[in-house]
Amino acid sequence: MVLPGLAERAVGNDYWRMVAGTAGTATGRPGGRVEEEPLYLRPRVDPGLASLLRDAPFLHALCDALGSPLNVLLPEAVAGNAERFRSVYRRHHLAGRVYFAHKANRSSALVRRLAACDTAGVGVDVASLGELRHALGCGFTADRVMATGPKDEEFLWLAARVGATVNLDSAGELERLARLVRTYGLGRVDVLARLSEFESDGGHAGPGTRLLSRRSRFGTPVARAGELWEALERHADAVRLVGLAYHLDTTGLEEKARALERCVLLMDECRARGLSPRAVDIGGGFGTGYLADAGEWERWTTALSEAVLGARPPLTWRGHGYGLRNEGGTVRGTAALYPAHRPVAGPGYLDALLSRPAPALDRPPATLLLEHLNDLYIEPGRALVDQCGLSLARVLDVRPTGEGPPRHLVRLGMNAGDVSLEEHGVLVDPVLLPRAGADAPSGDGPVGVHLVGNLCLEADLITRRLVYLPRLPRAGDLLAFVNTAGYAMDFHAHRAQRQPLARTVAVTREGGGWRWCPDEDYWPLTDPQGVPS
């Protein structure tokens, strides 16, 4: 079944207008309360996923065969994203590498497809022993692997043994690594030194200037960098400094530009001590735009404040405020929500960061990197798997709530761990895929529903938000949660109450249709059926 009006760049502007009529404006009501109208948060859908969603019979057949929930991945999309990041490097004449932050998705198909990319420009960032073993087994050579995150002895030993680059968090971690190298007669290990708390030294930004940087439990504070340089000199027989790194938990361009500039200057200090760093690793945090329409995001967040104040009916299950609260008629708190509509994200965000003049030297970071002959490393996770997959759930049961305005509970064949958009503060509507040949239930227009999971827990909500669908679903329909490959489809998956974990499949376009294989059976040198290409 083809969804009517399903656009190439966004799911169904025409489709949604046909069934909704409005975009969710509010109208007045006696007593100051706002009348409720549908508030949509329609997903942004690029051509690959849009084409897949139009083939509803194929997706239904997959779920019939493999069960609900089901994750569907497009490996070719991750290769396209990597190339878009690499194009930003070329635009700024920079060398370096794009490291995929493996923790964003545990898929074999995605990692194998990246391993088949340009070996000089694409690597993988692993944050555990298991991820390191997985990356090596998927085809990455150790020179394209960076080990980050908390590291136990086994993780450090294998990274050193195979020759991966180790991103060090502290002088203590460096000591442990050097001891392993000497104890087991391993070769010198290439390392990066991760720094943090750039606000602790504002000397390069001018007198009285405080560098803005969030505190982090990862990395060595800049104020203690001297201790790290001494440790690197002391263990020069075991490790080789190849660069400096940071990872800031912020979307602020100014903070990241300050940190990048500071790293460039600190690398000059390292060279003056006889060390030879050549790269700056700026981590991830490039963001993803989940929604097609900025106006819908603005309307919904405004309406959330109105609902918290009691000026309109609740938008959420039991009045959940996403961090906002009503204190004496004033909204207090901060909404714990991901900025789901981001006009600048992914490769565009990297381009903006490299083009923005850094504060101390008043030159763009790209210019600073070139002037100092530095390479650039990045570690995108969510942004590199943008538009690479979706999660499907079968509708199991639909029933009215029996209270307040007409509402329905829609129980799905998945739980909150299977599609953890809410866990990351991402709000986006699912796409309804009716079963072909089924009679549509009576009732016109959009309907507000609460999506609940299959666990015997009151807290098992797929989304706390009231979701509007074009019509009331029925048992057997599918809901497709779009763009879940980044942290949402398997990051929090579990086997609570012995519910099945979602299977994952990789799909590729062939002629006018789709072919699929289990995620673990996908290899870039074959088609999805295992036939050499």
Automatic annotation (TrEMBL):
The keyword Metal-binding does not apply. The keyword Transcription does not apply. It comes from the Bacteria. Gene3D superfamilies: Alanine racemase, Lyase, Ornithine Decarboxylase, Chain A, domain 1. Its cofactor is pyridoxal 5'-phosphate. Residues 95-295 form the Orn/DAP/Arg decarboxylase 2 N-terminal domain. CDD domains: PLPDE_III_Y4yA_like. Keywords: Pyridoxal phosphate. It holds the Pfam family Orn_Arg_deC_N. PANTHER family: DIAMINOPIMELATE DECARBOXYLASE (PTHR43727), GROUP IV DECARBOXYLASE (PTHR43727:SF2). This is Y4yA family PLP-dependent enzyme. It comes from Streptomyces sanyensis.
